[in-house]
Amino acid sequence: MNFKEVLLVVNPISGDIEKDKIISEVQHQLARKNASYHYFKTKGENDIKDIRSLVEKEKIDRVIVAGGDGTINMVAEAIKDFDLSLGIIPAGSANGLALNLNIPKILARQVEVALGDNYIDLDILCLNDIICLHMSDLGINAELIENYDASSFRGKFGYLIQSVPTLIKSEYPYRFNIRTENGERSEDAVLLGVANANKYGTGANVNPKGEPDDGVFEILIFKKLNFMEILKTLRNEVELDPSIVEIIPAREAHISCKKPVAFQIDGEFIGKETSIDIKILNKKLRIAIP
Ligand SMILES: Nc1ncnc2c1ncn2[C@@H]1O[C@H](COP(=O)(O)OP(=O)(O)OP(=O)(O)O)[C@@H](O)[C@H]1O
Asked: Looking at the predicted structure, is the pLDDT value of residue 72 above 80?
């Protein structure tokens, strides 16, 4: 154990989950390790700045975050320039990063892992200067997330009932220009993914050979125009059918499209964009894993 001052960041509203049990378990395990406990409850605004100040003021040497992917990305942004490792307690409606890192399901084990000594040095992707830790895309999946966000139905059922309106409204396929360090090409695609990890939060293993710590990301070109088949792949725990996607590894890339396309990063709808700059930061994010 190489820490004394531990900060727990909790998103009180993520995933409709009571956070009291998480807080008690972290306090309990820290007391056993004689480490000090510090607490930060997110507010949804100015959190990055406030976390940075707290880390400096209290000389924090380990951070744990309890929230969904949005909260983890926010904390990653706050601490990326400090020499700190991060433990994650999945507590969101989507927990795609935790799924990719095989974070256990039982709370006591999650806290043990978060306070443990086994790490991955995760690549930090930056898309138009926004952090991406596992999976972003342009096209129909982002359109689906946009429609889901605007509707009142949650969970798998919420996505299911948005499939048909998304299909009707979508202007797919999109013509993307893709430039990487290895060359340039144009492709018609229903969905263009940018993957740091293997899976979507739903469990769909769309990038089976990707490694989140190898300094390379993958561009996934979903070409076949079978919209329902692609949605089924993304929304279910299935292996990818290789005939519907082409995978290009890259270290940096620029993607453009003449008409604005829906764009999401790690499950958060960002907006409609015509141009995406993708790079990998020099700094890695050290995350505690089983
Ligand atoms: N105290 C708060 N009140 C309201 N919103 C908050 C608060 N703290 C954080 N947020 C918001 O929570 C969002 C992040 O939620 P996160 O993605 O971690 O959980 P989630 O349950 O998966 O959410 P979602 O389903 O919206 O993705 C951010 O938009 C952030 O602004």
From this structure: yes
Structural domain span for residue 79: 5-117
**Is 32 in the same domain as 96?**
yes
| Per-residue CA distances from 188 to 16, 145, 166, 264 (Å) | 39, 21, 18, 19
Binning pLDDT at 50, 70 and 90, where does residue 2 land? confident
Residue 73 lies in a domain: yes
Question: In this structure, what CATH number is given to the domain that contains residue 41?
Answer: 3.40.50.10330
Residue nearest to atom 4 of ligand 1 (CA): 44
Q: Is the CB of 193 under 6 A from ligand 1?
A: no
By C-alpha distance, which of 147, 146, 174 is closest to 269?
146
Question: For residue 284, how many other CB atoms are within 10 A of its CB?
Answer: 17
Q: Please give the model's pTM, rounded to 2 decimal places.
A: 0.93
Predicted interface score ipTM higher than 0.90? yes
Q: 11-20: string of b/e by CB count within 10 Å (b at 16+)?
A: beebbebebe
Query: Which residues are within 8 A (CB) of 133 and not within 5 positions of it... i.e. 6 or more apart?
Result: 69, 72, 73, 76, 97, 122, 124, 125, 196, 197, 212, 266, 285
- Please tell me if the CB atom of residue 87 comes closer than 6 angstroms to any atom of ligand 1: no
> In testing the pocket of ligand 1, which one of 42, 49, 147, 200 has its CB within 8 Å of the most ligand atoms?
42
Helix H or strand E encompassing 193: strand 191-195
DSSP for residue 216: -
With a CB cutoff of 8 Å and minimum separation 6, the contacts of 145 are 262, 264, 267, 268, 269
User: Mean pLDDT over residues 19-45, rounded?
Assistant: 97
Structural domain count of the chain: 2
Last residue within a domain, chosen from 91, 117, 143? 117
